[in-house]
Amino acid sequence: MINQTKTQLFEVFKKFDKDGNGYVESNELIEIAKQMNEEINQQDVDRLMKVVDTNGDGKISFEEFWEWWQFGKNEKLEKLVFMKLKLMNMLKSINSEFTRFGVSLEQKYEPKLDHHYWAINYGDFQSHFKFNIRMKYKGSGVQEDIQKEIGFQQSDSLQIVFIFRAIKPSQARQKLEQLWNEYKQYLKEKQDQIILPLIEHSLNVEFQERKDSVAISITVNHPLIEMTLQQAYLPYCQKLGTDMEILVDFLFGIKNGITKLMKKDQIFIKYLLEGFIFEFKAAFNSDLAKKVVGVFLATFGHQFAQKVAAVKQKQRIQQEFIWPMLFKSSKFHLQFKNMEDVNQFLNALGLQELADEQPTARQLIDEMKGDYQLQSIKNPNSEYHFIYKLFLILAEHFIAQGTININIPFAYLNIQFNLEGLKEVFDAVFDQENQKKQK
């Protein structure tokens, strides 16, 4: 992985090394910048050389270039490398293998933002079971982001959008819409006084068929939600200002899919040890803590002033909030080798017997079925029978991949998931396998 990235970076280095002498000199940096219509002056070059030319011989060797690439930071040079990678069609492959200082190369580097990247992964693999959770707040608005993410216009209230990959989107949408109408009719016949008024007066549900998926948009126009946004949320957004930006990204992935988990005698701890990843990325304004504390003190200043003896105390509290934000960027990445033999690994630790005693996934499901009486919702007379019918539609017409978006003004939460093999869990929970055998 690293060797491949190093080879690709060497190709970029050779493009910078115009005379082919194995070094990049200051005049070559100016020339490459001009070719890419980037402004760079002698002062910029001198500052750049001081950072990258570690032995001070007035020129940059590839090893110095590679060392800078791994551990250094210089906005001007980074931008030139980024553009050259893009022109050479190598940006995507390098970006997938190497994240520098929490900044994806495909993202525009913003000097006003602090970037942090922390990750632990066990083995080198593609995740088949995956959750990717992204939260974004932007003081200038996130309308364009939401339009790009989900293809819906942002609502002024709470909006929840589900997008599921479907085998036959047209048929899948019809089945879901039909079930929704049946459920509303059931509530009317039951003369429900709680859920039905909420659906009729506070929810706007829209089903949308797409090329390979079905989207369901739910807009909530409830007085309680609107009051919370107007009185307890939007005033703080105004105080934070239009330049405030926060991006948090969390990824959890497991090498194996659910299909392998559902195999007979598959023990979960062994399933997990074959490969997993935790990844956390964050980017936010350098003065985030200061602004948040300022808004807090301005809002609760009168009551708080009675408890805080003097202005010095307020400053001390500000400092205590701010100190974690002192770091401009951070990176922590712990990567373990591939697990070739889980049993051998557990034996070496003396944990083989303990692992063998752990329940399998199917045993856990059987226990859950008994505790929660899940079989009861299969009864057509059960008030929760529509949930079972929903599971049937999802299992038959959908692939367990998609996104869930929760949107409010200036912010959204995006959850991407890949749960291929979830149908096998459904079959096990509701004994569908036995029913198929009997038929």
TrEMBL record:
EF-hand domain span: 4-39, 40-75
A GO term for molecular function: calcium ion binding
Protein name: EF-hand domain-containing protein
Keyword annotations of the record: Calcium, Metal-binding, Repeat
Organism: Paramecium sonneborni
PROSITE patterns (UniProt xref): EF_HAND_1 (PS00018), EF_HAND_2 (PS50222)
UniProt-listed InterPro entries: EF_Hand_1_Ca_BS (IPR018247), EF_hand_dom (IPR002048), EF_hand_pair_protein_CML-like (IPR039647)
